[in-house]
Amino acid sequence: MWKRNSMVQTIHITNIIFSSILEIGDTVRTRGYSRALADQRREEIFFGNEGNFGTYSIFSEPTIMPPLPPLPKIEKYHALPNIRVGNIRIKGLSASAIIQVGNTHNVYMDSKIHHIRHLPAEVMNKEEGE
Hints:
Largest sheet: 2 strands, parallel
Strand order of the largest sheet: 1-4
Strand content: over 45%
Distance between the termini: 61 Å
Helix content: under 10%
Oligomer: single chain
Number of helices: 1
Structural class: mainly beta
Order of helices and strands: EEEEEEH
Number of domains: 1
Number of strands: 6
């Protein structure tokens, strides 16, 4: 792993949620995993059985990762070994996102989202008539 100093003058992040990562500096392995089930209805009606990830196959399917080639042997000399960043401004990081200033050897991020929209019959009939 290459050793460098990561220096950030200012960082402003409004929101960082759902398995997102802010990393300043070096890391060997970063792993983030997020899953979300969004059930959208016109009215706030809850039947009590919502939110079971096992009901939807997307959440039980394995994430297929392509095989990584072997890492080449790299020898580096940094005359100026510092990573200098002035200002970072981010509105939001969500659903297994990463912002990093530095070196990373291995990164694995996974996000699975299943979005369901329930439309009332009158909306469906109106769309079919158009």
